[in-house]
UniProtKB/TrEMBL annotation:
PANTHER family: MALIGNANT T-CELL-AMPLIFIED SEQUENCE 1, MCT-1 PROTEIN. This is Translation machinery-associated protein 20. Belongs to the TMA20 family. GO terms for cellular component: cytoplasm.
Length: 188
């Protein structure tokens, strides 16, 4: 979505009523963020809306990007927020071979998640239970970590469910919404 450098458009202040709606939508979409919601979206602080190309809205608190949304799609967290609260999102892990493709903006393919280094929810190889124990459905927002790395490298929306990924082991797994080094990451 943000392969090229982007230039921000108009910046406007979000009304307090809209801010409350965004806050409740965040809690509904990401229930694990609820304990931190006052740190992320303080009630007394002013939330800003930055218009980006291709009908994308970026919500910021001061200079800190928090969430972005394409038209009426779900709110997706910015990677800076994901790096602060990594365990508050649904996680998947790609193997080492898929890292360079993801960081160049390619669509995440199923083999990157189902190979030996990849992890899906309810995986036998997931000893500590970090990736959850319930299968995910198509359309859910996921944060993708890379094998051997400390921080998440991508946020996206699943194209197929994780159960189907395990069965077919091929095809498109996830659309890249935002990844390290993309235009949104480099936005000043």
């Amino acid at each position: 979505m943000f392969k090229k450098d982007i230039s921000p458009g108009a910046k406007s202040k979000v009304k307090s009523s809209a801010q409350r709606a965004i806050r409740s939508k965040v809690i509904e979409q990401y229930p694990k963020l609820e304990p931190y919601i006052d740190d992320i979206l303080p009630k007394k602080e002013q939330l800003d809306l930055v218009k980006l190309p291709d009908r994308v809205s970026l919500y910021t608190l001061g200079a800190t990007p928090l969430f972005f949304q394409h038209m009426d799609d779900p709110l997706l967290p910015h990677l800076t927020l994901v790096h602060k609260y990594p365990d508050s999102f649904q996680l998947l892990r790609i193997d080492r071979g898929a890292i360079r493709f993801v960081l160049s903006g390619a669509t995440l393919m199923v083999p990157g998640l189902t190979s030996a280094g990849g992890r899906l929810p309810d995986d036998d190889a997931d000893e500590e239970g970090r990736y959850g124990d319930e299968d995910l459905e198509a359309g859910e927002v996921v944060v993708v970590e890379a094998e051997g790395k400390d921080h998440a490298c991508m946020v996206g929306v699943l194209k197929v469910g994780t159960k189907e990924m395990r069965e077919k082991k091929k095809g498109i797994a996830c659309e890249a919404g935002h990844y390290l080094g993309d235009g949104l990451w480099g936005l000043g």
